[in-house]
Amino acid sequence: MSPTDNPMAAQPSLLGAQHATDPELATLFQHWVLDEVNAAAPMDARLRWMVQLAALIACQAEDAYGVHLEQALAVQLSAVEAREVLYQSVPYVGMGKVFGFLRITREVFQRHGAPLPLPTQGTTTVQDRFEKGLSVQKHIFGERIEAAHAQAPQDQKHIQRFLSANCFGDYYTRNGLDLRTRELLTFALLASLGGCEPQVAAHVAGNLAFGNDRALLIATITQLLPYIGYPRTLNALRVINEGTAL
Predict the structure, then answer these.
(1) Of 55, 72, 78, 233, which has the highest C-beta tally within 10 A?
(2) What are phi and psi of 112, to 5 degrees?
(3) What is the pLDDT of residues 113-154, one digit of tens each?
């Protein structure tokens, strides 16, 4: 079947309004993603939307993010789930890069009638965020987290405290998504950023500890390939292979 015969072309375009001015590229891309990629890497639809949104945030693809968020909310994803994807990206991508996505998300939510602000999902306080975050870290990475705190140079110990209290305490402990999903989103974010292979390796191990097996990690990176390109995909696959003894 040629791309122009693709029956999925009748679906909402993954390129949004660009379909009108670049129908050839839109049709090629639509066929590849909806037919070939989905066939090679079948994945729960909600999870697929979430890892794709995470990748688009990491890639700073604001226009594509808006198009995909519109479609995700229309067919599968709740506003709370979508917001938690955005929140989960903050400690990995940085607020400087996430800031514009807050505006896009707000505008899309308003068009879909989501009541803003959405219900609070935080579960920690200023007093207990470090302890709860450290507990999550140990759950994912084991007791080596204690060693990371103990062995950090004195002038860098605050970074380890930030990781426990902020990255894990403020974000991983939130309701709205379970820990297993958050850890997969972190893998998607890091792989999509590029240049984060040591962190990708750590979170490959973290995903395996949660039961997100090799097959799911490969399916995830396959689903991200159309959005992050081949170099970052191949780098992530190398790390997956190393982390799963292949």
Answers:
(1) 55
(2) -95, 5
(3) 999 999 999 999 999 999 999 999 999 998 889 999 999 999
Provide CB contacts within 8 A for 39, sequence distance 6+: none
Q: Which residue is listed with tokens 């191949």?
A: 234
Q: Which of 23-32, 201-210, 221-230 has the lowest mean pLDDT?
A: 23-32
Instruction: Give strand ranges (E) for 67-177.
Output: none
State which amino acid sits at residue 124: T
Task: Say whether pTM exceeds 0.90.
Answer: yes
CA distance 222 to 237: 9
- For residue 222, give its domain range: 22-122+174-243
- For residues 235 and 199, membership in a common domain is answered with yes
